[in-house]
Design brief:
The protein is an alpha/beta fold and about 190 residues long. The chain contains nine helices and five strands; from the N terminus they run H-H-E-H-E-H-H-H-E-H-E-H-H-E. The protein starts with a helix and ends in an 8-residue tail after the last strand. The structure holds uridine-5'-diphosphate and magnesium ion.
Length: about 190
């Protein structure tokens, strides 16, 4: 893990973001749990800017970037894109936005993402909003949302659930142990 963090640190200009004081909330939950849907609701009332790590990666893939093919392959397999790529996109989006409050949706997805983000940016989240949704409901939502995504098919969905259980839940457990996880009191999957 140390090597990857070092690589991420080396590739990023951490000082750029260090000069901007920001409040960050991570919005986490399984694939199709409604992270993006609820972020869109939250921004209307609380003055946050919504940054979806998945949307940033899809835009980077579609921009013809040198990482496009790698990102496309990772998404199609439900795998987690290397931290340095995602962190750079998040840093750029934060710096480009004239706001200091951000909801980051769908990141960090594993312990290495989490540690690299903290080490590169020096930022810890205020708290983590966690959408806990049953696998049955998430599957129903993913298969009915029709957004033309290459990963919303049953084969990839199974892989995404596996990655979520094995790699992403430990991140939520980590923040829970620090008392930073907030679960919405009323959450109805729309
Ligand atoms: N992804 C990633 N790192 C991130 C966020 C997303 O590698 O920080 C990739 C990963 O392959 C994931 C896909 O993008 O399966 C879609 O993520 P998104 O958050 O858009 O989907 P959701 O969790 O809503 O299904
Ligand atoms: Mg999403």
């Amino acid at each position: 893990m140390g090597t990857v963090i070092d690589a991420a640190t080396k590739d990023n200009d951490g000082s750029a973001l260090a000069s901007k004081k920001v409040t960050i909330i991570f919005v986490l939950g399984g694939p199709g749990s409604g992270k993006g849907t609820q972020c869109a609701n939250i921004v209307q009332h609380y003055g946050y800017t919504h940054l979806s790590a998945g949307d940033l990666l899809r835009a980077e893939r579609d921009s013809g970037s040198e990482n496009g093919t790698m990102i496309d392959n990772m998404i199609a397999e439900g795998k987690i894109v290397p931290s340095e790529v995602t962190i750079k996109l998040l840093e750029r989006a934060i710096l480009e936005t004239d706001n200091d409050k951000f909801l980051i949706d769908g990141f960090p997805r594993n312990e290495e993402n989490r540690a690299a983000f903290e080490s590169v940016t020096g930022i810890e989240p205020e708290f983590v909003l966690f959408f806990d949704c049953s696998e049955e409901e998430m599957t129903r939502r993913l298969l009915s949302r029709n957004q033309g995504r290459t990963d919303d098919n049953i084969e990839t969905i199974k892989k995404r659930f596996k990655v979520y259980m094995e790699s992403s839940l430990p991140v939520i457990e980590y923040y829970n142990s620090k008392g930073k996880v907030r679960r919405p009191i009323i959450y109805i999957c729309p």
